[in-house]
């Protein structure tokens, strides 16, 4: 008993508190991005939740002393949070969270001219991909006649977000 409450009740209150904190972390995740130190809330809250969970299970289903149960819960929680952090949280933080196409992947692909590309100027092309359609400003790769809207073009290179194109000629 602590403060007149059984340990099972305290562990359950702590578990409910961790659930509320987890929901707040989820809803306001951008606010907590600044915490990259050893006391990152994304690591501390699960650690407290695991301690509460294993403490509750230990108090409810074993006859061990409360100090031993707390010690075992801390050890198990520490191991689980280390594994969770090392194998899930850190790789997710380092992962690229975008489905966009890099500019190097666009080179060599075909596109459709949306806005005509004049001889000495810029127009606009549409590039179709699995993730949708993206538009890019475009200009001629080599000096020559302009390209009308609706024509197919081949993207030779991308420099400073501008596509350098030439008319696409289907050889086959």
UniProtKB/TrEMBL annotation:
Stretches that traverse the bilayer: 12-32, 39-58, 64-88
InterPro entries named among the record's database cross-references: NA-bd_OB-fold, NfeD2_TM
Q: Which Gene3D superfamilies match?
A: Nucleic acid-binding proteins
Q: Which key words are in the record?
A: Hydrolase, Membrane, Protease, Transmembrane, Transmembrane helix
What is any one GO biological process for this UniProt entry?
Answer: proteolysis
Q: Which GO terms describe its molecular function?
A: peptidase activity
Domain of life of the native organism: Bacteria
Q: Is S-adenosyl-L-methionine one of the keywords UniProt gives this record? A: no
Task: Specify the Membrane protein NfeD2 N-terminal transmembrane domain's residue ranges.
Answer: 1-96
Identify this protein by name.
Membrane protein implicated in regulation of membrane protease activity
């Amino acid at each position: 008993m602590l403060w007149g409450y059984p340990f099972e009740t305290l562990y359950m209150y702590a578990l409910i508190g961790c659930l509320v904190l987890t929901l707040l972390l989820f809803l306001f995740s951008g606010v907590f991005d600044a915490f990259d130190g050893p006391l990152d809330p994304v690591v501390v809250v699960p650690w407290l939740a695991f301690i509460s969970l294993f403490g509750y299970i230990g108090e409810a289903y074993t006859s061990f002393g409360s100090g031993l149960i707390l010690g075992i819960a801390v050890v198990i929680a520490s191991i689980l949070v280390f594994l969770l952090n090392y194998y899930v949280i850190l790789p997710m933080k380092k992962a690229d969270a975008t489905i966009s196409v890099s500019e190097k992947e666009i080179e060599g692909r075909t596109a459709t001219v949306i806005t005509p590309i004049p001889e000495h100027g810029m127009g606009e092309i549409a590039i179709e991909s699995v993730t949708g359609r993206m538009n890019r400003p475009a200009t001629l790769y080599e000096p020559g006649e302009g390209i009308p809207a609706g024509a197919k073009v081949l993207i030779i290179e991308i420099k400073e977000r501008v596509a350098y194109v030439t008319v696409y000629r289907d050889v086959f």
